[in-house]
Amino acid sequence: MPVSPYIAAVRRLVGHDLLLLPAVAVLPFDEAGQLLLVRQSDDGLWATVGGSVEPDESPRQTALREAEEETGLVVELGELRCALGGRRFRATYANGDQCSYVAIVFDATVQGGTARPDGEEVLELGWFKPGALPVGEMNDFTVALLEGAGLLSSN
Predict the structure, then answer these.
(1) Which CATH class is domain 11-148?
(2) DSSP 115-153
(3) CA dihedral in degrees (105, 108, 112, 115; nearest 10)?
(4) pLDDT over 70, % of the chain
(5) Cβ within 8 Å of residue 57, ≥6 positions away
(6) What's CA 98's distance to the chain center, in Å?
(7) Digit-coded pLDDT (tens) for 12-52
(8) In this predicted model, what pLDDT tens digit does every residue of 119-151 receive, in sequence order?
(9) Predicted structure pTM score
C-alpha cells in the first residue's frame, strides 16, 4: 500500500519503531442494510474502507477522501459510530513498520459515484449482510474494529 509523504518522512526519522497514528474507518451501508467492505491488495483480506488522517485534514475529510479513493463512491457521513484504540489496533507490516491506530469510525450512505476498486490498495468491493461478514477472510485489526463498532460479537 502506498505510504503518505508525511508518514514516509516520519519513518525516515524513526525507522520501524512504533508510531501512534490517527485513522478513520468508513462503514457504508446500502438500502438493504449491507455493509461495503474492500479486499486489500497487500494481504488479500477483507477490510473496512479507511486510512490514516493526513496533516491539516479533519477525520471527516479523511473519511470522504478515503471512500472515494478506494471505492469510487461519494458517501454522506452519518453519525460518528465510535472511536477505537488499544492493543488490538496495532499492526506490524511486512517491511517491519509498527503502527498503533486510533480509529474514528463513521457510518455512511452512498450518494453517487461508480463503484470500482482503485486497483492499487483495493482489489475488490463486496456488500455483506452484518450477520454474514467474511470473518475468516479478515485480519485481526478488522475483526477488532467491527467488534468495537457493534457489528460482530466478540468471542
Answers:
(1) alpha beta
(2) ----SSSEEEEEEE-GGG--GGGB-HHHHHHHHHTTSS-
(3) 60
(4) 99
(5) 65
(6) 17
(7) 999 999 999 999 999 999 999 999 999 999 999 999 999 99
(8) 999 999 999 998 999 999 999 999 999 999 999
(9) 0.94
Contact 25, 64 (CB under 8 A): no
Cell numbers that stand for 75 in this block: 458517501
* Domain boundary assignment for the chain: 11-148
Residue 83 C-alpha cell reads as: 472511536
Length of the chain: 155
Quick one: pLDDT at residue 154? 79
Grid cell, residue 50, equals: 479507511
**Phi (first) and psi of residue 60, to 5 degrees:** -65, -45
> Hey, which residues does 108 pair with through a beta bridge?
28, 77
Q: How far is CA 137 from CA 5, 40, 46, 151, 155, in A?
A: 30, 11, 6, 16, 17
Query: Cβ contacts of residue 19 below 8 Å, gap of 6+?
Result: 7, 10, 11, 97, 98, 99, 100
